[in-house]
Amino acid sequence: MMNALGDPQSLLVLGGSSEIGLATARRLVRGRVEVVHLAGRPSPALDAAAEELRALGAQVHVHEFDATAVDTHETVLGKIFAEGDIDVALLAFGVLGDQERDERDPLAAAAVAKVNYLGAVTASLVCAQALRRQGHGALVVLSSVAGERARRSNFIYGSTKAGLDAFAQGLGDSLHGTGARVMVVRPGFVRTRMTEGLPEAPLATTADAVAEATVAGLRRGAETVWVPGALRFVMSGLRHVPRAVFRRLPV
Amino acid sequence: MTAPRAPCAVSVGGLSVARMEGRLTGWGRTAPTTARLCVPTSTAEARDAVRAAGERGTLARGLGRSYGDAAQNAGGTVLDMTSLARVRALDLEQGLVTCEAGVSLDRLMRLLLPFGWFVPVTPGTRYVTVGGAIGADIHGKNHHVSGSFGHHVTRMRLLTAGGEERELTPGDELFDATTGGMGLTGVILDATIRLLPVATSLMAVDTERAADLDELMQRLEATDHRYRYSVAWIDLVARGAATGRAVLTRGEHATLDMLTPRQALDPLAFRPRSLPAAPRGIPGGLLRTATVGAFNELWFRKAPRERRGQLQRIGAFFHPLDGVPEWNRVYGPGGFLQYQFVVPYGQEAALRSIVEQLSRHGCPSFLAVLKRFGEGGPGWLSFPMPGWTLALDLPASVPGLGPLLDRLDEQVLAAGGRIYLAKDSRMRPRTLAAMYPRLADFRALRERIDPSGVFTSDLARRLAL
After folding, report:
1. What is the set of domains in chain A, with CATH numbers?
2. Which of A42, B165, B312, B457 has its CA 20 to 30 A from that of B281?
3. Quick one: DSSP state of residue B416?
4. How many other CB atoms are found less than 10 A from the CB of residue A85?
5. Cα(A213)–Cα(A23) distance, rounded to whole angstroms?
6. Lowest mean pLDDT among A168-172, B322-326, B381-385, B420-424
7. Could you give the C-alpha distances from B444 to B441, B449, B462, B465, in angstroms and in order?
């Protein structure tokens, strides 16, 4: 159960080897979280994440989960929720793709959409249903500022996040009054494995900063979290920049 | 928190079912969860509701005055017991009342005072139900003389997980597990309570100031036994030499000869007054160290250095906060929590250290309450034990509050003390288990009489009760 100060006791990370997911889990385990479920494709990174969290004192369960295998989500996630209440489910999986290649290879572009949007839709819906049954709990969806307005340089990734973001907002509203809720986290450029070698955008941040903002958002019951916070104002400005100008911006 | 209510009497296939969903919190207005609400108006309806409980279980709720998540059951059913509120029998010779669990202490006072009887134990609010008073085994300013509420219950009827009614008397294992059992052994249907005879409805009160914590503790230790009711209000914002400065208010029910001729015309009058309720939508953050400090300063200066035998009404003496309905709204949308612990006698150093840490942290706590407990009762999870108990309200938004209270928990535990379940909203499960030695027995009993876990609550889930 989430306590009065917004500290959860159990956590499910979808995309268990995600750096932001792990950074968030680390913080929460240092708080009240005792049970962590890591769901992801088997990999050394996933095992390492589990080991690290165990070393911090958490009881960690690893589950095989493939975001693109949408027809398995109900079974895989259903089993996890059957083991006990989940106070926070963090949807942390996602791929960046390679914009230039994906523009030339439509199937590769579809693969990005399949993970980031399709997989997220089924997984979120399954989680939301379970949280609704529990009468409490938060689903944290990792969106991105890239979804706020599509940019020439990464509109494939951006559009998947735009879809996910809109979906998550609507899902959050549908859960209003059920005790369960959705929190959308919109980080800017995060320095992780996923963005290695890419030119940094202004206001770049770290996985740990995203984790910190996520935990703080859970505490205060936020619906939307921008990381860093200043992006909220930057983006509300950029949203209104005319297309002809926006197209030429070096972002 | 109010929520839509529906009668249980919607019958489907012979069963009464709950149909309204409601968002519930405790009095501290933190950690809301949603449950189906059911309002049984008879024992039969309560039984049907218990039998119809789904896999998320069910739980009785009274007036929702416990601060944390004790009366919530996320995803399950919550039985609002306030409509199961008939007074069944009144023995004015012996001073015994038998009433259903949803009867409030307010109602009992209004009913019984004109006959010269008073409830044996009253907490800081009259708006608690008899069922809740037993479930939390509540205490009042007279604990050092009269013990906790459960001590005055001569029998009760409990609805268990299978839907059977069990008649319980003190000494029964299930009676002792239910007293302080936070509603997790079953639904208390009715109880018989031994009352206290009083000659008037006024209190004769002695008030004195104590300049610091040491002086306060000395005075309480030296003269508490002379009073039936005793409590000290501490200013936790004051620092330095004034740390722990306090006002002691101690008293006794006034006798007839203390009353003015005018008061003597109607010595048992009980007409509690109340101001308009605190409005909705008060923003958070009004209660800061500065504002609360100013309030506490004013209140300390206002108290007389020493005054003897002042006559006060019952409401003013016992339930000052009941004068402002919904006063919990002043903490804003973030809500607040109450921290109440007891440390045994001999652990005064631990108490002093905790008071200093709270004061140093700059907690904007309105008056905290310090009191000396007498003997503990037989309730397995009952809170009181001989020692010093301190209770304070804190806005949930105080920076660093979680780690601070975690540290204090450890100190309370190390001193051999414990935290009050009816107030808790944030403790760690293993800390609690170390504080309540009979928790293992409690779990075993629940496992035995309620193997499928019909009765459960957010508190039980959070702390693995």
Report:
1. 10-246 (3.40.50.720)
2. B457
3. T
4. 24
5. 11
6. B322-326
7. 5, 9, 18, 10
CA B263 from centroid of its chain's CA atoms: 31
Mean pLDDT to the nearest integer, B354-380: 92
Interface size between A and B, measured as CB pairs under 8 A: 68
**Of the partner residues A4, A133, A134, the one whose CB lies closest to the CB of residue B396:** A4
Question: For B213-260, where are the alpha helices, taking DSSP H only?
Answer: 213-223
* Pick from B35, B334, B426: CB nearest A135: B35
CB B187, CB B79: distance < 8 Å: yes
Q: What is the pLDDT of residues B295-308, one digit of tens each?
A: 888 888 888 888 99
- The active-site residue out of A65, A157, A167, A226 is A157
**A220: chain B residues, CB-CB within 8 Å:** 334
* Residue B353 predicted with pLDDT over 60: yes
Q: Which residues, 6 or more positions from A158, have their beta carbon under 8 angstroms from its beta carbon?
A: A144, A146, A147, A149, A150, A151
Please tell me the predicted confidence (pLDDT) of residue B282: 86
Helices vs. strands in chain A: H and E counts, helices first: 10, 9
pLDDT of residue A52: 97
Instruction: Tell me the pLDDT band of B19, cut-offs 50, 70 and 90.
Output: low
B32, B76, B462: residue with CB nearest A9: B462
The residue to which tokens 């030695």 are assigned:
B437
Tokens of B195: 């009352």
Report the mean per-residue pLDDT for chain A. Answer: 95
CA distance A67 to A93: 7
B198 pLDDT band (50/70/90 cuts)?
very high
Give tens-digit pLDDT for B152-171: 999 999 999 999 999 999 99
What does the angle CA B235 – CA B201 – CA B338 come to, to the nearest 5 degrees?
Answer: 30
State yes or no: is A117 an active-site residue: no
The answer to whether the peptide bond before residue B386 is cis (omega within 30 degrees of 0) is no
Complex confidence, ipTM: 0.92
Q: Does residue B398 register a pLDDT over 70?
A: yes
Residue numbers in B near A136 (CB within 8 A): 33-34, 74-75, 458
